Amino acid sequence: QVQLVESGGGLVQAGASVRLSCAASGRTFSRGAMGWFRPAPGKEREFVATVTWNGVQYYTYYTDSVRGRFTIFRDVAKNWVYLQMNSLKPEDTAIYYCAASSSRTIDWSRLSDYDYWGQGTQVTVSS
Q1: N or C end of the chain: smaller count of CB under 10 Å?
Q2: What is the 3-state secondary structure (H, E, C) of 20-76?
């Protein structure tokens, strides 16, 4: 089966940095999309960041609230994706979910366009 397993979450202070990891197994997403989502208060999971491959080059996408603070990147050989989170704010507190799709031609901000999901890892930022 295809599995995504997140790790790296924890309790940190505002301004600190955390790196989340997502290990994918059962399928290679070499030309697919891998990304991160988190739920807003009272909402379903919302887009945070995604990295895609078009056969020529990788592209990254970020939601406005994390652009310049978060960086998404992949280790293709290991079939992992990471989210480096810097300058964390209390409003970043959430469960972070890893998602993957075998296709690049998706709406990278739409939950239903991803095929596989992890169970999430909790990130708590204290003020």
Answers
A1: N
A2: EEEEEECCCCCCCEEEEEEECCCCCEEEEEEEEECCCCEEEEECCCCECCEEEEEEC
* Euclidean distance between CA atoms 100 and 50, whole angstroms: 9
Query: Alpha-carbon distance 126 to 100, whole Å?
Result: 29
Taking CA atoms, 44 is separated from 11, 19, 59, in Å, by 22, 23, 25
Mean pLDDT, 10 residues at a time, the chain of 127 residues = 96 98 93 92 91 84 97 90 97 97 87 95 96
Locus of tokens 């790296």: 8
Residue 121, both tokens: 């890892």
Q: What is the pLDDT of residue 37?
A: 98
